[in-house]
């Protein structure tokens, strides 16, 4: 079995091969906050429309308890977008699929290397299914069609991504967007930040 340092090196190389980057920080440096969940409740149109989002995702308190069980967090970032972004979308479906598959593959890799506690937090709203069963009347979390692959984003689990990224030396800017026919468009490239917890 790899040492944790060797595993981090392997996972970082994997992320870089796919156009991303990674940095290890102590799990104790990951910041959770109740206000993050409030942003989901009151600032996101996706609230309750995906099983990876509130109210289905872990609360900040639950996430904080999980973090106590790990020593290392590997932050993974991906800058920019892939695919053709139409004016009605802030990010492409291709990017969501790409980064979520990358994180699933990294979690699987670490698990198969003997890090059985590995736990992944991805980026964006869950994009595995074209239409999430959470939108159906009376849906419950067990109705998720792809629970094997679905993971919450860091934000959905109550993690302050900006403060946590600073622990890796990453300063994230505030994204702004412009109203365009059919929706909104980002004014600058987006940075997606995700995380693997390793022990």
Give a nutshell description of this structure:
The protein contains 5 helices and 6 strands, in the order αβααβαβαβββ. It has 199 residues and is α+β, with helices and mostly antiparallel strands. The strands form 2 sheets. A 4-stranded antiparallel beta sheet has the order 1-2-6-3, covered by helices on one side.
Question: Please, could you describe this protein's structure?
Answer:
- The protein is of the alpha+beta class and 199 residues long.
- It has one domain.
- Helix content is 29%, strand content 17%.
- The protein has a 4-stranded antiparallel sheet with strand order 1-2-6-3, with helices on one face.
- A hairpin with a 2-residue loop joins β4 and β5.
- α1 runs antiparallel to α4.
- The mean pLDDT is 91.
Key terms:
alpha+beta, 4-stranded antiparallel β-sheet, two-stranded antiparallel sheet, 5 helices, globular
Detail the topology: elements first, then pairings.
Layout: H1 4-17, E1 21-26, H2 34-43, H3 60-67, E2 72-79, H4 93-112, E3 119-121, H5 161-166, E4 177-180, E5 183-186, E6 191-198
Antiparallel strand pairs: 1-2, 2-6, 3-6, 4-5
Helix pairs in contact: 1-4
């Amino acid at each position: 079995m790899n040492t944790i340092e060797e595993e981090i090196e392997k996972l970082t190389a994997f992320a870089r091969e796919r156009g991303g980057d990674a940095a290890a920080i102590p799990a104790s440096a990951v910041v959770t906050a109740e206000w993050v969940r409030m942003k989901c409740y009151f600032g996101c149109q996706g609230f309750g429309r995906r099983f990876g989002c509130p109210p289905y995702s872990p609360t900040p308190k639950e996430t904080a308890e999980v973090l106590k069980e790990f020593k290392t967090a590997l932050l993974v970032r991906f800058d920019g977008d892939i695919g053709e972004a139409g004016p009605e979308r802030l990010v492409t479906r291709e990017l969501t699929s790409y980064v979520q598959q990358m994180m699933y593959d990294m979690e699987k890799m670490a698990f198969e290397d003997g890090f059985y506690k590995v736990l992944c937090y991805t980026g964006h709203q869950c994009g595995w299914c074209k239409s999430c069963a959470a939108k159906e009347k009376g849906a419950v979390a067990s109705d998720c069609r792809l629970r094997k692959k679905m993971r919450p984003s860091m934000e959905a689990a109550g993690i302050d991504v900006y403060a946590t990224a600073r622990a890796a030396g990453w300063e994230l800017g505030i994204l702004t967007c412009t109203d365009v026919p059919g929706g909104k468009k980002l004014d600058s490239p987006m940075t997606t930040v995700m995380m693997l917890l390793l022990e």
